[in-house]
Specification:
Elements lengths: L7 E3 L7 H14 L3 E5 L2 H10 L4 E4 L6 H7 L3 E3 L1
Parallel strand pairs: 1-2, 2-3, 3-4
Main location: plastid
InterPro entries: Dihydropteroate_synth-like_sf (IPR011005), Uncharacterised_Ycf23 (IPR007570)
Family: Belongs to the ycf23 family.
């Protein structure tokens, strides 16, 4: 980012639409974000990792979903 700091891009806690998430992640990558936060889903984590090298954070209201997302490559979880 031009001015430094945290450039987090959030695709949405309940956004499980693969096309939408891929678009948000690609835009975050091109826009200089420091990381992206996506819905907690192992397949979305894999998709995001195919689109960018940015760290992937996942968010969920259900902590039982975190394990598989971390195994898929998520770097941080948020409850």
């Amino acid at each position: 980012m031009a001015h430094g700091g945290c450039g987090e891009i959030i695709s949405g806690l309940q956004n499980f639409d693969r096309s939408s998430v891929a678009s948000v992640v690609a835009a975050a990558d091109k826009g200089g974000a420091t990381h992206v936060d996506i819905a907690c889903d192992k397949d979305l984590v894999k998709l995001a990792m195919d689109v960018t090298n940015l760290p992937i954070y996942v968010s969920s209201v259900d902590p039982s979903a975190f394990h598989s997302a971390v195994q898929a490559g998520a770097k941080m979880v948020r409850h």
